[in-house]
Description:
Blueprint: E1 2-3, H1 4-32, H2 37-57, H3 60-83, H4 92-113, E2 129-131, E3 134-136, E4 141-146, H5 150-161, E5 166-170, H6 176-181, H7 183-201, H8 215-239, E6 243-246, E7 249-253, E8 256-259, E9 262-271, E10 275-277, E11 289-290, H9 292-295, E12 305-309, H10 313-325, E13 328-333, H11 344-356, E14 360-363, E15 365-373, E16 376-383, E17 390-394, E18 396-399, E19 403-405
Parallel strand pairs: 1-2, 4-5, 4-9, 5-6, 11-18, 12-13, 12-18, 13-14
Antiparallel strand pairs: 2-3, 7-8, 8-9, 10-19, 15-16, 16-17
Amino acid sequence: MTTFLDYLLGGVGSGAIIALMALALVLTWRATRVVNFAQVGQAMFTTFIALSIQTLTGSWYVALIGAMIAGALLGVVVQYLVLRPVKRMDTSGAIIATFGVLIALQAAAGMIWGGDSQAYPQPFGNTGISAFGREWPLSAYDLIVIGTGPGGYHAAIRAAQLGLKVLAVEASEVGGVCLNVGCVPTKALLHAAETLHHLKVAEGFGLKAKPELDLRKLGGWRDQVVKKLTGGVGTLLKGNGVELLRGFARLVGPKEVEVGGERYGAKSLILATGSEPLELKGFPFGEDVWDSTRALKVEEGLPKRLLVIGGGAVGLELGQVYRRLGAEVTLIEYMPEILPQGDPETAALLRRALEKEGIRVRTKTKAVGYEKKKDGLHVRLEPAEGGEGEEVVVDKVLVAVGRKPRTEGLGLEKAGV
Length: 417
């Protein structure tokens, strides 16, 4: 937030332009006893240019330099097209030129010793000013929402419906993690895998079928489901008057963000950047160790043997998907039972159902590392409470031990978070 002192200091620059133009008018009037309306227009034009450039760039120094260049060019036009034919002396030219040189030197010194121009006072910038114990916002938006997942787009739409001017910033795809690489594609695969499972067991009650699995087509259908829902969110944002900006947002102040080198200010900010998979020590994500996002790409092939680390919702869902699609699945959980934050009786029933489908469930177990060999990944398992371990051989490992807030590069410290 720019202080009231910065406001006054920044105002000196624009005031100097107007004062010098007024001085030029006085000198001209004293020399000719004629009001030079061309110079009046020049003063108004130069001031307008200064304010316009400052609004676009957020920098008074850039605005002053641009205004002086524009004023000098207009001065040349005035001198040669208006004053010269009537043989009048334009005494403002020397003043304008001198002032322009001083501003250029001052800005150059600031660039050398003081960093970029954004470090200088921006009294009319996007964040407004603070004075007399309160904030005086001069913001371009009432609200900026960073992230367009279920939390972000609902907040943006509701705020717009209540009459606020809202900017939503999205670094990836509209809909966030849930719609693109979380809940929606996972449920789509669960539905397809469940249908395949029913077809396989249907013979037990008299229905014979020979289903064939087309992984490429399955992946395409999953993407169609995602595209339909994310497209709907984009339509809702547009229909409710929410301005959508693509790019990575970085906080540069309590009420200001930077996206693609441009700065945007608002009276309030909402951070709805979502989450990302939590990595497990000894199992860095890569070709052999998957996170949940990679596990959704079934069109890239099914592993014959899959180890799922984590018995929460993500691990259980994706483990069941791969088992029903034909993979051998082993699932381990550090806690005494799967779904450790859920109802114990429900978790026990679910465990028996998964084991009945062929998933090997191991609780009170932790994975401590792995070694890649010719026959697969040799993963070392140990009891959570200590004791003799064992080794399992699999083709891929899915780590689903939780998620963490997505805050890297967001610049929270700039906003005092």
